[in-house]
Design goal:
Number of domains: 4
CATH superfamily of the largest domain: PAS domain
Shape: rod-shaped
Structural class: alpha+beta
Strand content: 15-25%
Largest sheet: 5 strands, antiparallel
CATH topology of the largest domain: Beta-Lactamase
Number of helices: 16
CATH class of the largest domain: Alpha Beta
Helix content: 40-55%
Radius of gyration: 53 Å
CATH architecture of the largest domain: 2-Layer Sandwich
Strand order of the largest sheet: 6-5-9-8-7
């Protein structure tokens, strides 16, 4: 079988897939480069954000550390008895300035400035600024609160703390301001940046290597194909699978249904909902047994009332089994044709035998006439006419379905040549059904009975029908019968006691009969016959008959 799938028109120098041209292939960026660029972009973005947040947190920690030290120094100055007592003298600057400078140098801050209640400096790193009002607003500490913040003074922009100075009665008599230049904070922060940048660069390098490795891994996992190639392959696969005349069912290594094409859904009577589910739970037992056996030879299986030809192939990737593929072909019509062929062969053999017998009778009549015994010739001719009328035997008057009548006459003719007499009970009733189910059931039951009996045997057929439309078909024979232990198994697909040649084509007649009976809300059963063999009984119901059973 050759499958040709076309997907668009190929251009010279271009791709065989639709929507592509030479310019698209030249200018499009390969997926592996896109993956690397995307991952590097993510890595760099994250590292930049992490670096910015880390620097911000480091700066805040540095400020908090300086804040604690500045507050400690300012409060220690404000609580010194010598500083408090100095405000009661006529020259507080001479006492406070030396103390402030010693504390400034010991605490490693930029300045320690003490002011009186009017905001006039009593100490300053620059002696020229002593006696002058402070350049920033002193209202916060002079009101009894603590100020923490960045302000620009005579020494430049600084991170400073201002605390009030109280006398023994709790009155504010001045303020102590301690600060460090912002440039000093920046210098301390810059000392830690090289180490932080080193870690960030290391992380960026590691992320880049990881991005390239992941890109290579993904590229290898998708078999070095671009997204456009994968999309085109999927489109081509879908077009091929769903356009096939055969049904395809793919099962993975875990026994779950991986794929079902349109023809398989039609043949099996299932939908897309079975994809991903266990094949044992969603497929018919005969289909699942064929899948589990993994037979590479074609076998007949029954799905509903369809006779399918199935074959299982093992799916391998790089020498490893990844699942199984079941290929199904509808052989319902072919099976019917094979049965008709067998019937035609029987009729041909019967006609050949009749022709041979007729030629012998002509020879006898010719000899009698040559001997001048015309009376005996006429008598012999009359007996031959009576024997020939065997095929025109009347049927039961209640059988008015022309198809059933034709079937019974044809079967009687063929069976008469084999020494088998088919008897239709006089009380049989069969009106036209319009579905063909009665013909299928009756034909299969008679064929089954004929195969079971020998020469000079009788097969009894009884057809019944109620006013509600419930039909009963009973076929009895004189064969060996069916053992009670095997009576349920004879209705299973593929079960037969007859030899098969080539593809197993037997064992489906009774299974098909049972499925038709179930579809018609009836049943099929087998018991012992009064004739000594098997008695098969099938009940078919219509909607009216079903309502009466409820």
């Amino acid at each position: 079988m050759v499958i040709l799938v076309t997907a668009g028109t190929a251009r010279s120098g271009g791709s065989h897939f639709p929507g592509w041209n030479t310019c698209d292939m030249v200018h499009r960026i390969p997926l592996r480069f896109q993956l690397v660029a995307l991952q590097l972009g993510i890595v760099l973005t994250v590292l930049t954000a992490v670096g910015a947040v880390t620097i911000r947190m480091q700066e805040q920690q540095l400020r908090d550390a300086y804040k604690g030290r500045l507050i400690g120094v300012a409060e220690s100055v404000a609580r010194l008895p010598s500083v408090i007592d100095a405000f009661g003298t006529g020259t507080p600057t001479q006492i406070i300035q030396p103390i402030a400078e010693v504390i400034r140098q010991a605490s490693n801050v930029t300045y320690v400035v003490v002011t009186d209640r009017y905001g006039v400096r009593q100490s300053h790193p620059n002696p020229g600024e002593i006696g002058k009002p402070v350049s920033t607003d002193p209202s916060v500490p002079l009101s009894g609160d603590i100020f923490v913040g960045t302000q620009t003074g005579t020494l430049g922009e600084s991170w400073r703390v201002k605390v009030p100075i109280f006398d023994g009665t709790g009155a504010v008599i001045g303020s102590a301001s301690v600060g460090v230049l912002e440039s000093t904070l920046a210098a301390d922060l810059h000392e830690d940046l090289p180490q932080l940048l080193g870690w960030l660069l290391g992380a960026a390098l590691l992320g880049s290597l990881g991005a390239m490795y992941i890109s290579k891994l993904v590229w290898r996992r998708i078999y070095n194909l671009e997204p456009e190639d994968i999309a085109a392959l999927l489109d081509t696969r879908d077009a091929m699978l769903h356009g096939l005349g055969e049904g395809l069912v793919a099962v993975d290594a875990d026994g779950n249904v991986a794929l079902v094409n349109d023809e398989a859904r039609r043949l099996l009577g299932v939908g897309d909902e079975i994809t991903g589910l266990a094949a044992a739970d969603r497929l018919e037992p005969g289909i699942h047994r064929l899948l589990a056996a993994g037979s590479a030879t074609e076998e007949l299986v029954l799905s509903g009332e369809r006779i399918l030809l199935g074959k299982v192939n093992t799916a391998t990737v790089n020498g490893r089994e990844v699942g199984k593929v079941l290929i199904l072909r509808d052989r319902t019509e072919l099976h019917a044709l094979l049965r008709d062929r067998d019937g035609a062969l029987d009729v041909t053999q019967a006609l050949r035998a009749q022709a041979h017998e007729f030629a012998n009778k002509l020879h006898v009549i010719s000899g009698l006439l040559e001997l001048g015994q015309q009376g005996k010739a006429v008598e012999y001719l009359g007996r031959s006419y009576s024997d020939a009328a065997l095929v025109n035997r009347p049927l039961a008057p209640g059988v008015t379905d022309s198809g059933v009548q034709a079937l019974l006459i044809a079967k009687s003719t063929v069976c008469a040549e084999r020494g088998v007499d088919i008897v239709v009970t006089p009380d049989s009733v069969c009106t036209p059904d319009g579905t063909g189910d009665v013909l299928t059931v009756l034909g299969n039951l008679i064929d089954n009975a004929v195969d079971a009996v020998g020469y000079d045997s009788t097969i009894s057929v009884r057809l019944g029908e109620t006013a509600a439309g419930e039909r009963t078909i009973t076929v009895e024979d004189e064969g060996p019968g069916v053992p009670e232990a095997d009576r349920s198994a004879v209705f299973e697909a593929g079960v037969t006691t007859k030899p098969a040649e080539g593809i197993h084509t037997r064992g489906f007649g009774l299974a098909l009969v049972q499925r038709i009976a179930r579809r018609r809300s009836g049943f099929a059963g087998v018991s012992s016959s009064a004739l000594g063999g098997a008695c098969f009984t099938v009940v078919l119901r219509t909607n009216e008959a079903e309502l009466q059973q409820l």
